[in-house]
User: Fold this.
Amino acid sequence: MFFPTGGIKFLATSIICCSTFALATPPRLPPIASKPSSTLAPPTPAPSATISPSPSPTPIPASKREKYILTCQEVRIRTRLFLDLHLLHKEFTDELSRRSFAKFFELLDPERIFLTSEDIEQFRPLEDRLNALIARKNCSFIDAINALLLERIKERSEWLTLLIAKTTNQKLGNQSLADQPLAGQPLAGQSTTKPTWAKTRLELDSKWNQRIETDTQKILKSGFSGAISERLFHRYKKQITHAANRNRDELYSDFLNGFALSLDPHSAHFLPLDQDEFNSRLGNPVDNIGLTFSDDNDTITIETITKNSPAEKAGTLKIGDKLTSIDTMDGSPVLDPSTFDIGKINRLIRGKKDTKIKLTFIRQANETIVVVLRREYSKLKSIKVKSALADVRGHKIGLIRLPAFYTDLECRNRMLTSCQGSAMEVRSELDHLRENRAEGVILDLRNNNGGDLQESIRIAGLFINNGPILQIVDRTGTPRIQMDPDPRISFSGPVLVLINKNSASASEIVAAALKDYGRAIIVGDTRTFGKGTIQVIQDLSSPIAHTREGMLKITQATFYSPNGQSTQKKGVESDIIIPSLTENEVETEAEKDFAIDWSEIPPVPGFKKLQTNTSTEVARLREKSIERISKNQAFQEMINRVKDKNTHTSWKESFADENLSSGSDFQMQEAMEILADSLQG
Assistant:
């Protein structure tokens, strides 16, 4: 299948979810000459600490300096590619220009801590002209906005350094830095969820004052006994260094992502490192060298070393070793990890199998350890399917937790028919549970954000003998029916699907299909996330030139259940609600900017339910659940936290226990009781 894109044809070679195509690359312009990334000059040192970017590593010879992928011409090409494939938008209109303008500023300063509304107003005359500027290959506005951002970062750095000087590195006890007269008073009614732009510099000072107050109180509550000012400003130093050290590719990629987000919440632009991270999550993530890191202020240290990994086999590393430099050994500059967050460090460390990376560490007594590790692929245990068998009132209940719809991308790209993935592993666990005489099964899709489309179709098909699983509608408007590819049924007994507001995309395909067939009762949060769109991946790398130039993720279609219902914005509603902390803490699709609207289409012709969970039976189970929950004191305390809109206890606490039937997991415990009620009749 080919897609016309500005006269160049791209071959779709694989489909992933919610649906993705890996595409060949167009011809590319040669890379422009490299130039140093913007840096922030250190302000005048204060007695206790300074807020300034970390010093750069040893200079790299010009022949090995980073070369950039994105020119303004390339930005123009990539915006056009987005529009050639997008479900709704075909032209870079004035409205998209205005949206892109706003999103670009949000990406440059996501916490709204450097720029003000007054700063943004300086560029307001360009708001509906970005389309015309990009069409003329004029990206000077990107550089001008970045220049102002760097100026504001430098000013904020000096402001914070002055504040350090006034506190003289004292132990503050119950007095926080926000009590100092320099910053002014906190803003009344400042949002704690979505950040807003301060109108003026004075308001931004107040916003920082509130930020410092909040961070100080967190440190005090943690029992920290050292100099709070040092701890705080190490934290701010990293933020400032990261914000100030965007290279040209990262800056232009932020603009492209701003443009992508003006189309819908799920279109995106990826540089090569981000692409590696995305592919790794989708293709059954890998633990390349066997190290995980923790971030304590300005120090990145080894947190764990995986058994039998390249890191362990090296024999020289220990937990607690401080990472001081990263050399990707591909000609790029040696990097200082203290300027990056953990996410970026992980992306830098990942890479192709059998390639090498050089890491430098410091141990106590200033002992330096340098290791060169060869990357190896291994599955991460955290994303694998897990199962367990529980006894509830004399009934054997099988539990399956599916954290992601992963697949073997290399196998799929070779067009092989039998590829390892989540569907094959779920089938294996169902076989095991059936052999151990499980009477019913709970499929736990909580916090499963989706993944591969074909894996979701196969998993839904494990519970039916044949029939349609979903319908896909692209910009042509014609539904394409996706059928269960395997007539075998892996489990024919009662099924509950446990969901929450983090269950999205492929999870919603499975939940909606099984609900339409009457094959499962949906329990958990009030509804799922509400993502009913399908994305395609356009890989921009050149296999001929052996260059890696990133990729685009573009929303190309919407999906519908066999009964013609979309999950977009509305999600899949639970038949029986079991409250949880995710009710308050998850921003769902309906709350996102520029989300595509809900719609519906006719059911698949001839579609019929396989069996019926009657409304009377569901009502009976619901009444029993409500009564049980009302008598459970611990559950009631949790419900009160859900009702309290100011509660910010992390829902992740519920999923820290590897035990699938943990007593602290209220939703799972109640789901087992509901299934036991169903089995007892």
